[in-house]
Design brief:
Helix content: over 70%
Structural class: mainly alpha
Largest sheet: 2 strands, antiparallel
CATH topology of the largest domain: MetI-like fold
CATH architecture of the largest domain: Orthogonal Bundle
Radius of gyration: 24 Å
Number of domains: 2
Strand content: under 5%
Order of helices and strands: EEHHHHHHHHHHHH
């Protein structure tokens, strides 16, 4: 029962006692993580006040004020919206291509060799290093950023998905074959559910790579085109020596990452791999 703790042994009756308020509070993950964020903010504030150099490190309160001003003016929400539109499109394209590659690699020997060769070649290559060539190929526009985003998402997701597919037990594979499933039905009916923990890990890694690649690309692309998203917001305020606004932009990057992890990936995890008993 919620709020109760059972104690006892095989030779003694079980005693049920209510949990203390502290035990109930510490059992809530959101409160524990919120306390960590508050502690980090407090350390930041104390250190910035002690350093007394707003140009180097603004205080937490100054950063919050700059963040609020940027939100109220509409500048920050507009730039965040621009970044998220490009991110969602690039991330989606990367997921689709990675799914096709991983499925092909799991279905055929040639596909396995192809994926192994391509990942060995391109996975170590930083996505942002391709931005200059992407600008030459696609021009100074969104297609250039999409190209590097797909590169950032594709290889870690394809590797994790393929590793998950290879870890599917032979018993499940035989079930699919005996049921007469075709290639597509076999992949999405047998391999994907069984390998979903690895796929979800790949989705998280791909998201993190794509998000930081986008910000880095916007710092370069924004400087070239005089427009852009959140990366351009950071770059522009750096040039103006508005350090508090720079930190507000960086904090926005972190907040969006936390929200995506808590609202999207954790929700998917709770309703899939945890519900299925595949993870604790």
């Amino acid at each position: 029962m919620v709020g109760l703790e059972e104690t006892g042994s095989a030779d003694m009756p079980v005693v049920v006692r209510p949990l203390s308020l502290w035990q109930r509070l510490t059992g809530i993950a959101a409160l524990r993580r919120g306390a960590i964020l508050v502690l980090l903010a407090l350390i930041w504030q104390v250190y910035a006040v002690w350093l007394d150099s707003p140009l180097m490190i603004p205080t937490f309160t100054d950063t919050v004020a700059a963040f609020w001003d940027a939100v109220v003016s509409g500048q920050l929400p507009g730039m965040v919206g621009t970044s998220l539109k490009v991110l969602i499109l690039g991330y989606g394209l990367g997921v689709v291509i990675a799914t096709v590659l991983a499925g092909f690699a799991s279905a055929t020997r040639f596909g396995d060799d192809l994926l192994a060769t391509l990942t060995a070649m391109f996975n170590p290559l930083p996505a942002i290093a391709l931005l200059p060539m992407a600008m030459l190929w696609f021009g100074l526009g969104t297609p250039s950023i999409l190209f590097v985003l797909v590169h950032a998402v594709l290889w870690p997701l394809a590797l994790n998905a393929h590793a998950g597919f290879r870890g599917v037990s032979e018993t499940l594979r035989m079930v699919g074959r005996n049921a007469g499933l075709g290639t597509v039905a076999f992949i999405f009916g047998i391999l994907v559910p069984a390998a979903f923990p690895a796929i979800l890990t790949g989705l998280k890694i791909g998201w993190a790579f794509a998000w930081r690649t986008l910000i880095a690309a916007e710092l370069v692309y924004g400087a070239a085109s005089r427009s852009g998203g959140l990366g351009w917001f950071i770059f522009e305020n750096k040039n103006r020596l508005e350090t508090a606004s720079v930190f507000a932009g960086l904090a926005t990057v972190i907040l969006i990452g936390l929200l995506v992890e808590a609202l999207i990936f954790r929700t998917i995890e709770v309703h899939t791999v945890r519900k299925w008993g595949m993870q604790r």
